[in-house]
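Person: Show me a sequence?

Helper:
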Amino acid sequence: MTTAWTADHIGSLAPDAASLTAARKLRGKWSGVGIHDTALWGLCKGSGSRPYQTIVDLGGPAYKCTCPSRKFPCKHALSLLLSWSAGEVPAAESVADFAADWLNGRATRAAKKSAPEAKPAASSGATADQRRARVTAGLADLDTWLTDQVRTGLAQSDRSLRAFETVAARMVDAQAPGVAATLRQLPLATTHSDWPRLLLREYARLHLLTTAHTRLDDLSPGLRASVRTHIGYQTPADSVRTETPVRDVWLVLGVRTTTEDGLYTRRVWLRGRTSGRWALILDHHYGSPAFPNDTPAPGFQVDANLHFYPAAAPLRAIWGDRHTDIPEPFTTIPTGPATPDRVDSTARGMRPGGIAAALEDQARALGADPFLRSWPVLLADVVPVRNEKGWDVVEPGGDALPVSTTEGEPWRLLGLSGGHPVTVLGEWTVDGLVPVAALADGVMVDVGVAQGTPNPVRGGSEDAGSAELVSAALVGTARRQADRSGLAAPVASAATTLTGDPAAVLLESIALQDCFARGGITAGSAEHGPAAADDERPLLPAAAGARLIDMLADNSPFLEEWFALAGPRDFRAPDGLVSVLLDRAKALAPHREPLLRLAGARGRWLAAQHPGWKSLVRAAAEDDSVWSHGRATERRSWLAQLRQRDAAAASAALAGSWRTESGPGKADLLAVLADGLSLADEPLLETALDDRRAEVRRLAADLLGRLPDSAFAQRMSQRAAAWLSFGTGPVTPSLVTTGPGVLDDAARRDGVGDSFGYTAYHAGGAPDMAAEWLQRVVAGTPLRHWERLLGSAEAAVRVSMAEAVCGPMFAGWTDAALAQGDPEWARALFAAISGPNIRNADSDKQRALFALQPDADQVSYLRGLDSSWLAEIESMLRAMPQPWPGPMAEHVLRLLTERAQLCADRPGAPSLVPGSYRTLFRAASAHFPTGVVAIVSGLARRCADPYWEQAFDQLAHDLIERKTMLEELQ
């Protein structure tokens, strides 16, 4: 039996992350599974009555499933593979009938394909001759158009999109799609400030290509194949497989996906471990990035044959026979000089080494094929550097190569490096190095900056040697003779042999100068900058890091729980993720601080160099200069961390600088004292009561209200006694008010009058400020004051009082109970304001009172509510700690099941569809204990309504995801 694949290898086969996530959800839905030789099969329960039949041919791999998905492999095939990897698929003596039919048909088709019927040679040759004649005629028209542009002058030519599209359409008719694609990119060149040079360079390349096509039979076989490829002749894969295979252990170094007009292109770079030879696997798919799964993920190697497409500088290849079933991960790339695997120097590959060797390698490839736009390079021990000139990768000795920023700046590469050497895979272009991936700590990391439309019309460095030719082309060779004296000496010598049409001679001279300039690139120089400080904290597990990135992209509701669990472990993020965390920290303010803690020292180092991230830089907590010279956010963070270590020292630091603090920042800093508040903070809070800003006074009063033994609390008690009087009654005293009257200066100082111009109370159609003042006084009065006058909390809330007093009293008591954290008052008030006769209750304060009660009381209250109170239950559940207690989760499931049963009895009732409880399901997925997943799955199987079944299935899937998430953080 075939050895089971690893979960990592199966993950690399997934067409996207969503498919892999959906595949994990299907665990437990399989029946009739089995494996025999290389055949794997199973039945998966879906939404219909018949299960999906899923088959995997492990020898391909190839996949077959009766589901309607257009992804390959679909989620069912991935789930079946994961079950096999987990040891949940038993061996079988024979293949199931439904799987055997497909496998036999596949074998028959493969046999026919291996012995195709030969087509009549005459017919094939006639078709090829017709194609070549059509291309020749089209390219002749193109060459006439090109020379006309230069003869009449680029400045006078029509450079509109329509003009280029007209010529491109002619090339499509001529069956030269490669040339047409280039022409459709030329309008981009006209938007560049240096458009004459760029346009003339592209015209020269096209002229050289048309000239090469007229001499196709005189070219070497390799160059002939390259010219045909650049023009757009197709090379059948079957003919490529007849090429002599190259066997090696191929390292998959990087992958990049681009899209243009709905056509997705995947480029995968390989390198032979023994030969050091480059290879490029190129795949296309229209409409979606559903590429073949025959290529391992970056970071894996496979012993296999490759068949290279014929070319002057062979690079593109297709897979041949595999000599290992399962790709293996690699952690190193061999270094040292490469050995040519054949005499042809263009086939040589350089092992990762110096910049000079990489430039020599690309110059050799360019000399063999002057139409190449890029060539892969692998640079060992280089440091990415951002300086005033731009970006470079720098060797230890100071030699440097510029990094292209046409598609974006390589911040991820810089974050991965941290100023330390890494091995970089990239493409060398006229604009510089385009980073693709990097090897750091034995792991290949994607450092690409964009996945969009490739732009082959790049800028490149200005070539002074062609300046006179560009000037002549602008005016037109019909008006001005081209001066070729400024060309490089070797180019000028070759150009003297050019004769004929001056416009064609100018284009050929430009082509020669461009090839010479690109092939003669030498290393520059740059200095290393300071490296990031070391971070000794434990590294975040790789699986947890990958999940975090996915959750950040979706703003997952599980993020809060993830950070709560990861925070105490004080992980540091992998270096390759630091730039992503900083980018999300900029956008997601609620999670900014935990993201910055994960980014750590590397994040501070990287953010200091990024114009948009500099505001995220947090100074080290132990740096005392932050308090005197730091920014507002840094000072608050510093004070908060000091408060956690030494509450008194934090209070003293704020008191010492209080008079010099800016008005807007005072409230923000004063709020830090809420953590660890004590009577030691009273002097500073009393000082804050005299501040000019109302929000500062209000915050100081709120904080003092949390200190029942403070002078502020005594003053509030005295006001309460003066403003309120109690009559006598046979059962309970009656509460009446003698009225607050007009506020004195002392009351205003204590924040009683700070209502910010708004009050919830009205009398006679006008705002009732007296009721607002009464609420503030009651909120600041210690609860024990009312216990002395009215008895226990339960007795106090039953006291009869005038309607005008009832609202302020209950609102004030609620504020006091929350500020003083009194569970007895919270229980009594919650019972009083949660009844059916209480109107306009503040739901937020209801939840806060509910949260103060013991867990047993919370569960007891909610379990006393039936399914008609699901909205109330959902509101109150938000106040319970995470995860919810098991009995509470089971009660919610019981009530939801009742709704599902009612829906089955009364189909179509709007209030019974699962969409009406979407928010409750979402809350359950984030707060249920993961141990109830089996119960949820069982309920899904018993649902008669398919939509309710789907809702419970989704809940079970979310709980499995959370369980996996928690395990990854262990």
The longest strand covers residues 246-260. The two ends are 34 Å apart (CA to CA). The chain has five domains: 7-111, 138-234+462-523, 235-374+427-454, 710-853, 859-970.
